[in-house]
Amino acid sequence: MELRQLSYFVAVAEELHFGRAAAKVRIAQPALSNHVQALERELGCALFIRSTRRVELTRAGEIFHERCVGILSEVDLSAEITRAVAGKTIRQIRIGTVYPATTGVLPAFLAKIARKYPDIRIHISSGNTGDIIRGLENGQINLGFIRPVENSCDDTYSLVSLVSAGLGIGFAPEWTEGLPNRAFELKTVRGIDFRIGLGVAWNKEDPTASRDDIVDIARSLGRPVR
Questions:
Q1: Are 26 and 40 in contact (CB under 8 A)?
Q2: Does 79 map to a domain?
Q3: Per-residue pLDDT for 140 more than 90?
Q4: Which of 10, 46, 50, 138 has its CA 20 to 30 A from that of 216?
C-alpha cells in the first residue's frame, strides 16, 4: 500500500466520480481505477459501490476515507515540521473560514500573506465553526477564522430552518428576506449591536500556522469590540 494510492482513493471518495478524480490527481482514468482496485484487493473488501449512474462509498470505504485523510494530513504536517526545524520557508497554508462572516476580513488577509510570502500556495475551505475546529485538530486546516464557540448557531440556514419549524426566534441577516418559500416573518430590529465576534484559531503543534507572523497578520485585521 502506497501513499499515492491513498491520495488517489481520497480523490475518488471526495469527487465520487472517477473521471473528475483522475483529472484532479492528473493521471489517466484507467490507471486510477487500477490503483483503487489494487487497494480493494489488498484490503479484501469493496470501497465503492459502482453503477452506470453513480459512485458511492461503502461503509468500509467511509471509514477508510476518514483514516486516509488523517494519514495524509499527518504526512503533510510531518513534512512542514521538518522544514520548520530546518528553517525553510512555508510552502502552503490551508485556511478554514466561516462564510459569510469573513467576507470583510479574508481578502485583506490574503493580500498581506501574498505580499509577505509571494510563493506560498493558499487553499481555502468554508464551513461552520465545528467543522473548522475538527479540521485544525486532524491537520486538514492550518489556520481557521471562527465565530465564538459560545454562539448557539453559526449557520444561518440552520437557524432559518429551526425558526420555520416554530422552534423559537432568531436574528437573521437581511438577505434571508429573498429566500424562496419563506415560512417565517421578518421584522426590523433597532437599538441592538449585531456585530458578531470573529476569532482566529490554530493548532499549536502545526508550525505552518503557529509562526508568529502568520497569526499576527490575522490578528491585525481584528477590531476591538467596545
A1: no
A2: no
A3: no
A4: 138
